[in-house]
Structure formats: C-alpha cells, structure tokens
Amino acid sequence: MYLRWMVRNDKTGVDLGIWKSISTASLSCPLDVHSGNVARKLELLSRKQNDGKALAELDAKLREFDAQDPVKYDFALFGLGVFEGF
What we know:
The chain is mainly alpha-helical. The protein contains four helices and no strands. 44% of the residues lie in helices and 0% in strands. It is globular, with a radius of gyration of 13 Å. The chain starts with a helix and ends with a helix.
C-alpha cells in the first residue's frame, strides 16, 4: 500500500507519486479479505485463499485491463467490499 501511495500519482492527493524511479506497472494490488472477496465475485480470482498465488492470479487479470497501472483498481475492489457490502 505504501508503494502505491509513493509511486502512483492520481492528482487527487491520495497517491502522491513522488517516487519516479519505480514504474506503476511493477506494482501489485493489495490483496486483503475485502478486495479478494470482491475479485472472486467478479470472477477476477478463482483461488480460494488470499496468498501469493492468489495475488499473482489477480495481478495477471488486472494487467489485462491496464498493464501500465494495474493497481488503479485497488480502491474499487476494496470499496465495493467494505462500503457497499458487495
């Protein structure tokens, strides 16, 4: 999560984008219980556990959508789980 904040620049002040030497393409989406459950419901993730293999699976799927910034989907996955009870 810290890397996301320091590397991405979202122009709204959440992601600061002050570390220019790391590419957003190299970031992984934080995988927690909420983002994992939503990813499974959206069929982005088939693995039952939230582990390294699940992270690799989710990363691969998100990179299909945007290879240059796959982490931009993090807040949507997390928010649907926490705030919307999806």
